[in-house]
Write a structure and sequence with these properties.
The protein is α/β, with parallel strands linked by helices. The protein contains six helices and five strands. The chain has a five-stranded mixed sheet, sandwiched between helices. Residues about 20-40 have low confidence and may be disordered.
Length: about 200
């Protein structure tokens, strides 16, 4: 989908206007977002924005072309917590979210760029702690490039974090903008719901 088309669809969605019919069936209902990239994802997805000191979690339910935020949380780990303690808590909290909301899929943003080898080590371990909790429960795990997440969540692959957060708030009909890590996790959920092929 081109950036222009994506922006037009988001504008129509947020304005509550009927969306233009796709060139192939099924025809979307008025006011509901629908992509024809394959069978539409419906169900519960857990989005994770992994970070050693502030991992974001979000759980979104997709149903009938609408999305609802069920849960969001930031796992804050003070400097006093050791590296191993942080990883253990990430694994434990991801597992608890899976047990509570029973998602069928887990989605994360791919790591594209790291500043140095130390950062790469920390990011890899953090992601591993989160992914292992989902893997042990035999869930489908999907990873998306940052630009794809921004494109799906806001209509532009070059959107700022603030722009993405505002679109996440609008699309999920939230009263206020989520904290940054939670907003990023919710954006990954929306990316999965919009673009995953069943």
């Amino acid at each position: 989908m081109s950036r222009a088309n994506s922006r037009k669809l988001w504008a129509a969605k947020l304005a509550g206007k009927p969306l233009p019919a796709p060139s192939t069936p099924p025809t979307p209902k008025a006011g509901k977002w629908e992509l024809t990239l394959g069978s539409r994802f419906e169900g519960v997805v857990l989005g994770i924005d992994p970070s050693l000191r502030g991992t974001g979690l979000a759980v979104v339910e997709a149903k009938g072309g609408e999305w609802r935020l069920l849960f969001s949380q930031t796992l804050k780990h003070p400097v006093a917590m050791s590296f191993a303690e942080c990883l253990g808590d990430i694994h434990r909290e991801v597992d608890a979210a899976i047990a509570r909301f029973a998602p069928s899929h887990v989605a994360l943003e791919q790591t594209i760029y790291v500043q140095n080898s130390r950062t790469a080590l920390v990011m890899g371990a953090t992601r591993g702690a989160a992914i292992s909790a989902a893997a042990l429960r035999n869930l489908t795990i999907a990873e998306y490039p940052p630009a794809r997440v921004k494109q799906a969540a806001s209509g532009s692959g070059r959107a700022s974090k603030e722009q993405v957060a505002l679109q996440v708030k609008a699309v999920l009909h939230l009263e206020k903008v989520l904290p940054p890590d939670e907003s990023d996790a919710a954006a990954v959920c929306l990316c999965h719901c919009l673009t995953h092929r069943l």
